Amino acid sequence: MPAPDLPAAAVDLSDAEFQELDELLFAFAGSVPPMDIVTLDGYLCGVLVQPVAIEPDAWLPRVFDEYGRALPERGHAVYERARTLILRRYSALNRALVDDGWFDPLILEDPVDEDGSPSPPVQRAASDPLIGVDPVSLVLMPWVYGFSVACENFHALLEVDDPAVHIALARLYRHMPAETDEERELGATLERERPLATLDEGIEELVACVADLADLTQGARYRVDTVRREAPKVGRNEPCPCGSGKKFKHCHGAS
Questions:
Q1: Quick check: 144 and 42 in contact, CB under 8 A?
Q2: Tens of each residue's pLDDT in the chain, 255 residues
Q3: In sequence order, what DSSP letters do the residues of 175-222 get, joined into one string?
């Protein structure tokens, strides 16, 4: 079944609007901080490639609260503006994947200080799991983390029994710290067979993985199940099935 028509107004955000969205999200910071715009970008793609269509009201809460607790009441000016920008980015990503099979992820390549100068290398404790992580993966990790949050909260993609889906996910998750021996072995295999020498290569591989997943799940996502009647259709001149003795058109068929 063909993909549904996408809104013509799915115009992507400008750089200024991305900055505005980041500031709006920061305004919601509390005991549980909201997503930043890079994590949000990965999260939106993780929602979009699920084999089932997920309504915004189901995935929006976790943007503002890790536990998906209640959103601010509609009419809250900051929330309404943030919601508008988020849905525009969501629609633009969807349109890019459907129309082009490609998209531009939001990746922050070089952390900078307030004066615009490059930040010094982060000093990490010896026990930090990020010690020794490939520099390409360090840059891509926040985006992939957002993608993983979508998959952890909406399980349909992880439950797809398709080796191609599992391979694409492994190619993405190589940028996350390995937690098991199996993950470490898989990561080492990918490093040997699909090395990523530069950040550009890493970004291209990331986009290709998401595009592959979108293509692999599109048929299921846009499937429309036929609604079947639980009882046969009753003719207007036939007896009403309620047992009143009246014709259907003069009984329940009249409502």
A1: yes
A2: 444 555 555 789 999 999 999 999 988 876 677 899 999 999 999 999 999 999 998 999 999 888 877 777 767 888 899 999 999 999 999 999 999 999 999 998 754 344 544 444 444 444 545 555 678 888 999 999 999 999 999 999 999 999 999 999 999 998 888 777 777 777 777 777 787 889 999 999 999 999 999 999 998 887 744 333 344 444 556 666 556 666 655 665 554
A3: TSPP-SHHHHHHHHHHHHHS---SHHHHHHHHHHHHHHHHHHHHHHHT
- Whole-angstrom distance, CA of residue 210 vs CA of residue 225: 26
Strand runs labelled E in 52-150: none
- The helix/strand/coil state of 21 is helix
Nearest to 142 by CA among 41, 45, 63, 39: 39
* Distance separating the N- and C-terminal Cα atoms of the chain: 35
Q: Which residues pair with 112 in a beta bridge?
A: 118
Q: What is the pTM assigned to this prediction?
A: 0.76
Polymer length in residues for the chain: 255
Contact 40, 63 (CB under 8 A): yes
How many CA atoms lie within 13 Å of 128's alpha carbon, on the beta-carbon side? 10
Rg for the chain (alpha carbons), in Å?
Answer: 24
Count of CB atoms situated within 10 Å of the CB of 170: 15
Tell me which DSSP letter residue 240 carries: P
